[in-house]
Amino acid sequence: MFAKKYVDEVIVVDDGSTDRTSEIATLAGAKVKRLPFNEGKGAALKVGFEGASRADIIITLDGDGQHDPEEIPKLMEPIIKGESDFVIGSRYINGNRRNTPLYRRAGQILFDWITNKICRLHIRDTQSGFRAFSKYAVPVFSFRQKGMVIESEMLMDASRAYLRINEVEIAVKYVEDKLTLNLILKGLNILSGLIFLAFNPFKTGGLFHDNNWNY
After folding, report:
1. Residue 200, domain member (yes or no)
2. Which of these, 28, 199, 208, 212, could form a disulfide with 1 (CB 3.0-4.6 Å)?
3. Residue 89, domain CATH
4. Could you tell me the pTM of the whole model?
């Protein structure tokens, strides 16, 4: 488990998998949080954040192997220097799209545009799951969305709370190299979630909610 080299504790959230994820992660030295059935990425992140509630910095990585744990220090650096509350590992800084299949990038351009419009931000990679959070940022997130749109909801919450958001360039490695029905369904899930966020801000804790924030 390469991530252990860069952090004090690794938490693996097993979102109702039917393989040996929990067993292998435990043997590798991770603290495993196992959900009884698949609840979605948002639900898994909420469980992970709860498990890391005492951490000074929380790092999130997707479980599909696309992120390189060796880049964890790069994401932590702006927080350690006091320059950022929320750091996104961006695949597209400096126009770098070489490692992203075209069909993926086409969908991500749309999701980036919608998310930035809703949040009034200018993030180049709104859907990246490789992120770092300071302990001061954690209370901001509502985790109302259980599915894939959680990446955008977190940006909405961060924007409302005026968190300092930075992006750092990362590499990315994709396992599959062709469009599949599963990816199409994921894309539609994100799109429908973004539409919900845009038109139901009071139900999501989003940018246009009028509650006062005191941290």
Report:
1. yes
2. 28
3. 3.90.550.10
4. 0.86
